[in-house]
Amino acid sequence: MAKTKHTIRIISGTHRSRRLPILAIDGLRPTGDRVRETLFNWLQMKITGKNTLDLCAGSGALGFEAASRGAKRVTMVEKNTNATHQLSKIKESFKFDNVLICNTSAQQFLNRCNEKFDLVFLDPPFAANIIQELTNQVNPMINPGGFIYREAPIDTELQQMDESWDLYRQKSFGQVKIELWQKI
């Protein structure tokens, strides 16, 4: 099992200020507090009761934040076994009954999934260079009015979403850029 290198906090909701231990796993890059705070300010009341998917969950920062803020269900997909075990420990410790954790690759999960989602977090490891592939694959699984969040390195040119999407918000933070799109 990988060692814990630090913690990050859940910003708001039922588990506000609880700390999530972050494992020292190569390529694991949790979404920072400032970025998460901005994202969840954008989403505000659009999380409660929603079916949420956290692809490439990693530390679980986005998914656990959504669970804390009232998401009906949060499905976390992570292929790294050590990270998946850590997510399961956090889920049990925090008593998140609305969280489901899947130990598989994002692509394999999406190939087998028949569910529809209201909110999808798409923040794959930057080095994997799979954000556009996953965007295309998850697109038909998002309900009308639903959202997709994408996070990428500042120098990555993300393709525009098709005409069934509106760019809701976007922002840059240092070496990272984020986008939130809403399905029409």
Provide structural commentary.
This protein is an alpha/beta fold. It has a single domain (4-183), classed as Vaccinia Virus protein VP39 (Rossmann fold), CATH 3.40.50.150. It contains five helices and nine strands. The strands form two sheets. The chain has a seven-stranded mixed sheet with strand order 5-4-3-6-7-9-8, with helices on both faces. The model has no long low-confidence stretch (mean pLDDT 94).
Question: What's the short story on this structure?
Answer:
By secondary structure, the chain is an alpha/beta fold. It has one domain (4-183): Rossmann fold (3-Layer(aba) Sandwich).
Order of adjacent strands in the largest pleated sheet: 5-4-3-6-7-9-8
Query: Over all CA atoms, what is the radius of gyration?
Result: 15 Å
**Low-pLDDT regions:** none
Spell out the CATH superfamily.
Vaccinia Virus protein VP39
- Which H/E pattern describes the elements? EEHEHEHEHEHEEE
Please indicate the count of domains: 1
Estimate what percentage of residues fall within beta strands: 25-35%
Amino-to-carboxy terminus distance: 43 Å
Helix fraction by DSSP (H/I, runs of at least 4): 25-40%
User: In DSSP terms, counting alpha (H) and pi (I) runs of 4 or more, how many helices?
Assistant: 5
Summarize the main sheet: 7 strands, mixed
DSSP, total strands: 9
